[in-house]
């Protein structure tokens, strides 16, 4: 699920880069694939593991995640980046950690409003994303540790975006429009601010030719190795439905790899072969 979430937000960033290079077909393919990764693959897997609970359970999960990021993960990453001389990354990690602490407080307030209506608590909706444009380029940090931490943070923000999107959908379906807005607006912050800022420092987006080659490599790995392995394990454990979902996803990923390979050919480029 975390891989699918990361693919969703990364492909949306790749689509914008393709737009900048006047490659509408590539951009459209990335956006279609991003939609599939979130709204089909991740959503199917989320149903199998019961990721989405009732609104109170979803708020507890969100609060726990934000608390960990605010008090532990980003604090540690900031300290390490500062020690490694990556001052801009240290500043960013600290700033994002503060944002996550604010998200935690809003989720706690919403949780009180949901679980104890007589308390007079209201669900806050005053969350606003300030989108950051992702610029193509190489990493802007000197330490391999900081770079790895940025990539870890990107995965976390991508997964938070995906979860909050699903949680927001659940809230809307259950007649809680204010809670839906809180989840969806927080999701937008995680993707368009936090992920984007990390991506800029990590050099996560390059020129479209390079992006395509990275995409093909990832989709091929998932289609030929990761998902087939997971499906075999699920089948051996007697989880037939999971095995079917995982095998179906493997086939989809191979179709994606083929489609992206076609775009590479149209561009007259060639991806390096793995040794």
TrEMBL record:
Give one GO molecular function term. metal ion binding
Residue ranges the record marks as coiled coil? none
Q: Which residues form the Ferritin-like diiron domain?
A: 1-118, 140-271
Query: Which Pfam families is this protein grouped with?
Result: Rubrerythrin
Name of the featured protein: Rubrerythrin family protein
Taxonomic lineage per UniProt?
Bacteria, Bacillati, Actinomycetota, Actinomycetes, Streptosporangiales
């Amino acid at each position: 699920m975390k891989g699918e979430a990361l693919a969703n937000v990364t492909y949306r960033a790749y689509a914008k880069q393709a737009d900048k290079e006047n490659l509408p077909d590539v951009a459209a393919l990335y956006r279609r694939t991003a939609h599939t990764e979130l709204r089909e693959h991740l959503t199917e897997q989320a149903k199998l593991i019961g990721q989405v609970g009732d609104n109170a359970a979803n708020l507890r999960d969100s609060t726990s995640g934000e608390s960990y990021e605010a008090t532990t993960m980003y604090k540690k990453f900031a300290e390490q980046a500062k020690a490694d001389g990556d001052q801009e990354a240290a500043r960013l990690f600290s700033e994002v950690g503060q944002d996550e602490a604010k998200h935690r407080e809003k989720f706690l307030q919403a949780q009180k409003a949901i679980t104890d209506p007589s308390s007079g608590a209201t669900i806050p909706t005053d969350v606003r994303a300030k989108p950051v444009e992702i610029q193509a380029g190489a990493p802007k940090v000197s330490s391999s540790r900081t770079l790895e931490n940025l990539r870890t943070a990107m995965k976390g923000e991508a997964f938070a975006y995906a979860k909050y999107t699903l949680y927001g959908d659940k809230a809307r379906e259950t007649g809680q429009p204010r809670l839906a807005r809180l989840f969806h607006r927080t999701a937008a912050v995680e993707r368009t601010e936090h992920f984007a800022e990390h991506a800029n420092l990590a050099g996560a987006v390059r020129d479209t030719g390079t992006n395509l080659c990275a995409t093909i490599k990832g989709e091929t790995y998932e289609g030929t190795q990761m998902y087939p392995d997971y499906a075999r394990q699920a089948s051996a454990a007697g989880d037939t439905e999971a095995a079917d979902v995982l095998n179906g996803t493997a086939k989809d990923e191979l179709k994606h790899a083929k489609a992206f390979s076609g775009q590479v050919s149209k561009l007259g480029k060639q991806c390096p072969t793995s040794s």
